[in-house]
Amino acid sequence: MNQYLWNESFGMYFDFHFLNGRQHCYYSLAAFYPLWARAASKQQAAKVVRHLPLFLQPGGLAASNVQTGFQWDFPNGWAPLHWIVIKGLQNYGYDLEAQEIARRWIRLCTKVYLETGNMYEKYNVVDMSIRTIGRYPSQKGFGWTNAVYQKIAVDLLGCTVC
Hints:
By secondary structure, this protein is α+β, with helices and mostly antiparallel strands. It has helices at 2-5, 33-36, 42-49, 79-91, 95-116, 143-156, and strands at residues 6-7, 12-13, 15-17, 22-24, 56-57, 60-61, 76-78, 122-124. 40% of the residues lie in helices and 12% in strands. The strands form four sheets. A two-stranded antiparallel ribbon has the order 1-2. It has a two-stranded antiparallel sheet with strand order 3-4. GO terms for molecular function: alpha,alpha-trehalase activity.
């Protein structure tokens, strides 16, 4: 994995295009999967964590730092990516960063729920709404959002009435 995905110059994991034999140097939360899997060294994890400001928004983490019009990019935030990043950060002792991301994500999901009565598949983490980009509007009642919300609220933030 490190041979193909790790880029020491950038201090980041990137996708690798096997057909052309090159990395695609595109900043996305996929770079945190090695932290979640405990596959990164402590030094690599520290370098990846330095890139958190590229993704951090009022409502949590944007999937990437580029707005392409695709749904897995800026400004969209996704529950499973939040879980991967939060757990990856915790695996390497970045508990304060994990807590901050958790608070922002819970704040966004709760705000939208109080406004609409629904949980959603994806959110706009910049303006803290469901005005997302992609092929279709954000879908209501998404299981992965419900599960991640519950796990973060109870396990990370200590909510006893969630």
